[in-house]
Amino acid sequence: MTSPSPSTGTGQVPALQTALAAEHAVIWGYGVVGAHAGEALVARVRAADEEHRTRRDATVALVTRYGGTPVPTEPAYALPFPVTDRASALRLAVHLEEGAAAAWRYAVAATDDVGVRRTALTALSDAAVQAARWRLDLPVAPATVAFPGD
Amino acid sequence: MVAVARRSVLIGGTVGAGLLVAGCTSGGPDASAPTTPPPDPLLAELADERRLVAAYDATVARYPALRGRLAAVRADHAAHAAALVTALGPAAPTPDATAAGSAAPTAGATATPAATATPGATAVPGTATAALAALRAAERAAASARGTVALTAPADRARLLAGISACESSHLVVLG
Prior knowledge:
B: 8 helices, 0% strand
């Protein structure tokens, strides 16, 4: 087996590991979101969670292909604020997507591999889109930010 | 008469070719074009961000009820343009009076179909629904363009362009 593409850059594995660690945290966080967001949002929380699980699995595979050992998930993470109801659950969901956006935006700049950059850009865009959806649900204005991941 | 003469020269053989060569070499700056560095790729992205700002201004001028929904999106594009100017540094064009900067008051003062049909102004579709669809299409194209440039840009520019691209994708949530 050869590596998937010529690794002209040096940042692929560290950048992807940072993003993978973020995805682990996001998936843990969506468990908390789902417990408090309320029945009406259950399906959408599950869909967002599923999207991140798919992305996590793809990132694990990518790290492995580039010769790294994928970082494991932590047993638990610290919440940025207490989550007790629908509003705080949605705020956490926004926070999680902003974290994912930051990690993937870092990954874009940390590698010069076009394929990895494309993967990171897609993940960054998806996180920005999902964050905007949760902001509309809260609702909080504006629903978008000029530079997701800043 | 001149047009006829040119046409005959182009069709003709040796004489025409000689004139064409003369025309090229007498161009001075144009003649050295092949050795001139290509324009900074961020210039096209900046021009497009300014066009987007103008498109939002024209849309809000025609459909004031959309202002609340579109104001923040317009502000995002203005922030993108400002960031691109910073990234361009000395290569950035000076603020253009015909660009987005002056579009808001002008469009607001002359919010008529005739004004939006002025050459060079942003054409706004005839219904609010169609106007939103046009903005969605523009956002998709912008996200794609910025994203494509980001793939091969230096790291700092890639970070900037990727952020702009992602923001533009998220605008579809607001415009949907």
